[in-house]
Amino acid sequence: MFEARHSMDAPTTTSAGNGTSGDSGGGGGWFTPRKAPKPAEGGEQTQPEGSEPEAAEGRRVSAIRPVGRPGAAASTSAPEARPTPEARSAPEARPAPEARPTPEPERAAEERIPAARQAAEPAPTQVAAQSAPQAPASHPEPRSERVPEPRQPSPKGSPDAIRVQRTMAEIGPVADKVTSYFYALLFTRHPDLRPLFPAAMDTQRDRLLKALLTAAEHIDHTDVLTAYLKNLGRGHRKYGTQPEHYPAVGECLIGSLSRYASAVWDEETEAAWVRTYTTISQIMIDAAAADELRAPAWWFAEVVSHDLRTPDIAVVTVRPDQPYPFLAGQYTSLETPWWPRIWRHYSFASAPRSDGLLSFHVKAVPAGWVSNALVHHARPGDVLRLGAPAGSMTVDHTTDSGLLCLGGGTGIAPIKALVEDVAEHGERRPVEVFYGARTDHDLYDIDTMMRLQQTHPWLSVRPVVDDHAQFPDAVREYGPWNEYDAYLSGPPGMIRSGVDALRDVGIPAGRIRHDSVEELVAAGD
């Protein structure tokens, strides 16, 4: 089970995308169109400047059209955003000009991708982006989609899985070219999709390949893949995508793969990818449609409190414009007015409150667009946008197992929420918290945690200061932990060493909940 990722060097983020959503944000996924709350000043080109339609070396992939519901006309336009409440003006961020991708000739593709059934509101998956606009260097933020960790391709599996894995092995060395060519095709053939993406796409680099590896690895593991894709589908409603966008993406994806995996590409391989992509996209479309019946695509949230705990860490509290249901330990994606269409993932720093307020712990990182805006520019009265809650790093209240929690840096935020959740349920199950930081200065929330310990006799809080971020080793000095469920939230190195330490002390892997290893190499911004 994977959960929200947090970094000592990054703002609190999602659980496994720590989301990825990302929603980073997301997560990861197949592609990530973005929808701006309002057009950015000056506008942006919807088609790569100077790009010309590629010359196909044969038959090009047939146009893919979704099958509309009886009596319903397919719409290609993204849903109109709700009017944004008036927010306080702030420094304007100007992305650099867009790069000009030049598509290369595409290899012919023989199969036609089956059309996806139209659902009310689709959710495109997240992928890596071409190096289009050059913008301030940033550290990609950990995502928290519940993404399984990719393993080495196995020679065993269904025929489709084997062909997909062979393709992935073939394109591995040229992943950057595949990604750039994919976006060149997408924006040249379908320029109407360009406005759905952020102006600067450098932070999305490599996400496509990671998402493909994940899907390829788990194509035969229906339960894991379905849960992952449904989460992406629900989370991506906020980008304003439609069911008819999926065929466009599939067409360009297969066009890119067929060009760069020519050594293993044949009709059977293409058919395998068509079936795989059709399955994946339909799961996401259906999940988005189901979610539309019970929740909005996004929420507006007004900043009501901004508490600067250290020069680079702030606790930001917001009031959503309508009820926002979530569970302690989950995360959300967040967009600021200073960086439209740039979403980042943050975990809730408390259990659901009676007043409906939501709090986030944010650490500004060098060149971090969203984190610096939230820490240094956000003030009461500013209005943000929130995506749907996600993540499964939650407490199982059907058992009385103890909780062993490891929180590093701003990763203490969801850990505190879990403690509050246990307290609100009136349970007296033991909860052991290890709060790690590189310096005493970074233990910015230690007073809050110690007050909770004084209030609840079943809670034990142990601060661990280690400039090498190896504090999970301290867990070995205590225990035994065989009757505990473990929760980890923090930077990549802490997660890796933490999982090893917990397994060494006898906690089964199935009882260890943590961030998505798929994006542990990323840092937040």
TrEMBL record:
<feature type="compositionally biased region" description="Gly residues">
    <location>
        <begin position="19"/>
        <end position="30"/>
    </location>
</feature>
<comment type="similarity">
    <text>In the C-terminal section; belongs to the flavoprotein pyridine nucleotide cytochrome reductase family.</text>
</comment>
<dbReference type="InterPro" id="IPR001709">
    <property type="entry name" value="Flavoprot_Pyr_Nucl_cyt_Rdtase"/>
</dbReference>
<dbReference type="InterPro" id="IPR009050">
    <property type="entry name" value="Globin-like_sf"/>
</dbReference>
<keyword id="KW-0001">2Fe-2S</keyword>
<dbReference type="InterPro" id="IPR017938">
    <property type="entry name" value="Riboflavin_synthase-like_b-brl"/>
</dbReference>
<feature type="domain" description="FAD-binding FR-type">
    <location>
        <begin position="296"/>
        <end position="396"/>
    </location>
</feature>
<dbReference type="Pfam" id="PF00042">
    <property type="entry name" value="Globin"/>
</dbReference>
<feature type="domain" description="Globin">
    <location>
        <begin position="155"/>
        <end position="289"/>
    </location>
</feature>
<dbReference type="InterPro" id="IPR039261">
    <property type="entry name" value="FNR_nucleotide-bd"/>
</dbReference>
<keyword id="KW-0479">Metal-binding</keyword>
<dbReference type="Pfam" id="PF00175">
    <property type="entry name" value="NAD_binding_1"/>
</dbReference>
<feature type="compositionally biased region" description="Low complexity">
    <location>
        <begin position="115"/>
        <end position="138"/>
    </location>
</feature>
<dbReference type="InterPro" id="IPR008333">
    <property type="entry name" value="Cbr1-like_FAD-bd_dom"/>
</dbReference>
<feature type="compositionally biased region" description="Basic and acidic residues">
    <location>
        <begin position="83"/>
        <end position="114"/>
    </location>
</feature>
<protein>
    <recommendedName>
        <fullName>nitric oxide dioxygenase</fullName>
        <ecNumber>1.14.12.17</ecNumber>
    </recommendedName>
</protein>
<feature type="region of interest" description="Disordered">
    <location>
        <begin position="1"/>
        <end position="161"/>
    </location>
</feature>
<dbReference type="InterPro" id="IPR017927">
    <property type="entry name" value="FAD-bd_FR_type"/>
</dbReference>
<dbReference type="InterPro" id="IPR050415">
    <property type="entry name" value="MRET"/>
</dbReference>
<dbReference type="InterPro" id="IPR012292">
    <property type="entry name" value="Globin/Proto"/>
</dbReference>
<dbReference type="InterPro" id="IPR000971">
    <property type="entry name" value="Globin"/>
</dbReference>
<keyword id="KW-0408">Iron</keyword>
<feature type="compositionally biased region" description="Basic and acidic residues">
    <location>
        <begin position="140"/>
        <end position="149"/>
    </location>
</feature>
<dbReference type="InterPro" id="IPR001433">
    <property type="entry name" value="OxRdtase_FAD/NAD-bd"/>
</dbReference>
<dbReference type="Pfam" id="PF00970">
    <property type="entry name" value="FAD_binding_6"/>
</dbReference>
<keyword id="KW-0520">NAD</keyword>
<keyword id="KW-0521">NADP</keyword>
<keyword id="KW-0411">Iron-sulfur</keyword>
